[in-house]
Design a protein that fits this description.
Helix content is 30%, strand content 19%. With 346 residues, it is of the alpha/beta class. The protein has 2 domains: 2-148 and 318-331, NAD(P)-binding Rossmann-like Domain (Rossmann fold, 3-Layer(aba) Sandwich), CATH 3.40.50.720; 151-312, Dihydrodipicolinate Reductase, domain 2 (2-Layer Sandwich).
Length: 346
């Protein structure tokens, strides 16, 4: 039985990790840390877990917790973990971090895009980027795992096979991505009030969204050289979901069958990635509540472009269930344990 702790357990991602681990047959949740709710019963905060998690929220340091558990999930804001983590803590337990603190290898890029100083850059080289389908072998032995977020997971997986095979011009990618409101977190913000987000849609972070360099870095690894792309996120009035539409110029002539073979080469054996039938476009409602990513594509002979589309649940494959998927790989469990959920419709 693996002993687990969750820091930031009362945010949306932290609560979803707690829910998933409750259904995992090989995990005991030892700590649910939340400074805001310390001392309060967890089941009173999340009534969906009534009589399922009978434990109070605690307030314990990551150093203290590391001596009492085998793995810590940190569902915390940017800057927390990199200000607390040390090699000594990693000697005690393994860390799965939901923030961007260890996703970007170049510390100067992190500090530029996030506007904060990095306090443990010596750990960046050790951190493994937790995109399971791409880095599975590295994840097995990781002590520090940087779990990707929702926009990045969807954007990278949708384009990865064609970038890996040089089938698209690397600097031609334009990504427009839509997110449900839960992607903005559980914190009380005027911009996230019902009256502010309902019956409207808006772009934000135009030209400067902080997930841009992460997507560029990972697709650059796939291509074999640096990549520059355009990424524009949008907020739309739904609870969950990411839909990424990615337009790029094809590097040569390729038929639908040629491209489908490439996607199948990389994803046909991946349980949680579904490449859809011809002319079928992904929809967020068909991945909701699951760890699945649905991918579709269509070529445009008139422009010479390909339009790639991906959909996932931002709280699942875009956060919590991918963290549990990585946990399973790290500890040698079946990859689908605790996250083998069929999408919910409606």
């Amino acid at each position: 039985m693996i002993r687990a702790g969750i820091i930031g357990s009362t945010g949306y991602a932290g609560a979803e990790i707690a829910r998933l681990l409750t259904g995992h047959k090989d995990v005991e949740i030892k700590w649910l840390v939340s400074r805001s709710y310390a001392g309060q019963p967890y089941e009173d905060i999340f009534r969906n877990l009534f009589e399922l998690i009978e434990k109070d929220c605690g307030d314990i340091s990551i150093r203290e917790m590391s001596r009492d558990v085998d793995v810590i999930f940190t569902a915390t804001p940017q800057g927390y973990l990199q200000g607390e983590l040390t090699g000594d803590i990693l000697d005690q337990c393994r860390i799965i971090d939901m923030s961007a603190d260890y996703r970007i290898k170049d510390v100067s890029v992190y500090e530029k895009w996030y506007g904060i100083e990095h306090h443990s850059p010596e750990l960046l080289n050790e951190a493994v980027y937790g995109l399971t389908e791409i880095n599975r072998e590295k994840i097995r032995d990781a002590r520090l795992l940087a779990n990707p977020g929702c926009f990045t997971t969807c954007s990278i997986l949708t384009a990865y096979p064609l970038m890996k095979e040089h089938l698209i011009e690397k600097d031609s990618i334009i990504i427009n991505a839509l997110s449900g409101v839960s992607g903005a977190g559980r914190g009380a913000k005027v911009a996230n009030l019902f009256c502010e987000v309902n019956e409207t849609a808006k772009a934000y972070g135009v030209t400067n969204h902080r997930h841009t360099p992460e997507i560029e870095e990972q697709l650059g690894y796939a291509y074999g050289s640096s990549v520059t792309l355009q990424f524009t996120p949008h907020l739309i009035p739904m609870h969950r979901g990411i839909l990424a539409t990615e337009t790029a110029r094809l590097a040569g002539n390729a038929s639908y069958e040629d491209i489908k073979l490439i996607f199948d080469k990389y994803y046909s054996n991946e349980k949680f990635i579904r490449v859809l039938k011809k002319d079928v476009c992904p929809e967020t409602r068909f991945v909701e509540g699951s760890n699945y990513v649905d991918i579709g594509f269509k070529t445009d002979e008139r422009t010479g472009n390909i339009i790639m589309m991906g959909a996932l649940d931002n709280l699942e494959k875009g956060a919590a269930s991918q963290a549990v998927q990585n946990f399973n790989v790290m500890f040698g469990f079946p990859e689908e344990e605790g996250i083998d959920m069929i999408p919910m419709v409606p």
